[in-house]
Amino acid sequence: MRWRKVEGSGHVEDRRRLGGRGAAIGGAAGGLGIIGVLIALFFGGGGGGLDLNDLFNQVGGNTQAAPTGQDLEAGPDPQAELVEFMKFVMTDNQNVWDQIFRDAGSSYEFTTLVIFDDFTQSGCGGASAQVGPHYCSLDRTVYLDLDFFAILQNRMGAGGDFAQAYVISHEIGHHVQNLLGTMGQVQKLSRERPDLRNEASVRQELQADCFAGVWGSTVFAAGAVSDADLTEAFNAAEAVGDDRIQQQATGSVNPEAWTHGSSAQRLEWYKRGLNTGDPNQCDTFSG
Asked: Residues 125, 44: contact at Cβ < 8 Å?
């Protein structure tokens, strides 16, 4: 993917252990299991979280450990280019949504991506690396431990910079849902109708995938991505399907416990946003 360096913060707040720039706090979340953590996040105001505890245990432990604060202080930041790429994705993505909101006669509120090591505080009670990338609706912020991308590539078979861009775009999609009031409506429905809780969550996640595709359509139209880049995003969408994760983590698939949608569903809705470039085509709640 062709991208440019962004001046300034790029809507990214760096809380990694970089000598005085904000130490990470505490350790990772305990073993609540895939469904437990997802439900806790969902009803705590989060969105898009992916619990990796069981997956780590089943596929052979964590990937290579992140550099410690001492390592980072002693030399160049090994993740510097990735941080710059995150700034580009955050800025370009949100500029697109800002224009979409303007065209609709509304205003867009920019969100921030917090990158951290292991654990950090958030408006939803804390952000853990084990939960994966997620959006907290209470403080309207995206949280990500950058080591997730190594897991995505090495353990889930979905590498490449446009796969990384898909992950961030999906979380920004949750922010758009929050601004539109969709996330609040889903949470209200889930409280009133617990029997529809998982279905509502799946529809919300698939819409965020579609919104991610809307941004993807703009960079594809601009010639910034190739067909190979798109394949990276397709692989990522499939890799984080509930059926794929359940199969890897437990060796079986239970559709009744899905909260994000199957690999096929996630790919379908991402492609719909990509092919149409129209957020109005992302209505996953009808029918």
From this structure: yes
User: What residues are paired with 143 via a beta bridge?
Assistant: 114, 134
The one-character DSSP state at 67 is: P
Answer whether 173's CB lies under 8 Å from 210's CB: yes
Sheet of 12-14, strand order: 12-14, 112-115, 141-144, 134-136, 46-47
Among 216, 98, 207, CA closest to 164? 216
CA 66, 72, 76, 77: dihedral to nearest 10 degrees? 50
Q: Give dist(CA 20, CA 37) in Å, integer.
A: 31
Pairing mode, strands 127-128 and 119-120: antiparallel
Sign for the CA dihedral angle at 162, 262, 146, 64 comes to: negative
Q: Compute φ and ψ for 128, nearest 5 degrees.
A: -115, 145
SS3 call for 40: helix
Q: What is the mean pLDDT of each run of 10 residues along the chain (287 residues)?
A: 84 77 31 34 41 38 41 73 95 97 97 95 90 93 94 85 94 97 95 94 96 96 92 90 88 92 95 97 91
